[in-house]
Amino acid sequence: MTTTLKSKLHDDLNAAIRARDELRSSTLRLTLAAITKEEVAGTEKRELSDDEVQKVITREAKKRREAADAFAQGGRPESAEREKAEGEILAAYLPKQLSDDELNVIVAQAVEEAKAAGAEGPRAMGAVMKIVNPKVAGLAEGGRVAAAVKKLLQG
């Protein structure tokens, strides 16, 4: 029997509670709450697929990164460290992110495809992003992808 990502989160939460791992248990609780909130959003309750659960985890991890940056800029290093630690816990449930080199190769191929389709210069950004996004979904953050596309189109 295959286990879903959500049930794995539940199992890991139970293990963290038993081990008295406060950081891990609170992080997983918040993530499961976000998943439940997503499930009951809309007109009727539904069970999220693993892909949808992964999107929720990605969103939660991004929140942690942004909060860590904000705390670091605000002069609260202990809060920033906690947010970073929570982000690392969530990263364990996400697919491995593409390296910069791997991302640049995919973006370069997409730029060539867009040029072949007639898109040129900085205005080709939208066309290139449409080609790249499905290929890197969940494997690279949107900001990183956009920066790589922009750099290649200008360079």
Could you describe the 3D structure shown?
- This protein has seven helices and no strands.
- With 155 residues, the chain is mostly helical.
- Helix 2 (22-40) packs across helix 3, helix 3 runs antiparallel to helix 4 and helix 5 crosses helix 6.
- The protein is globular.
In short:
With 155 residues, the protein is mainly α.
The global form is globular
**Approximate strand percentage:** under 5%
Total number of β-strand segments? Answer: 0
- So how many helices? 7
Quote the distance from N terminus to C terminus.
50 Å
Helix content bin? over 70%
Based on secondary structure, the structural category is mainly alpha
Major sheet attributes: none
Mean of the pLDDT scores? Answer: 85
Order of helices and strands: HHHHHHH
Uncertain stretches of 5 or more adjacent residues: none
- What is the gyration radius calculated from CA atoms? 19 Å
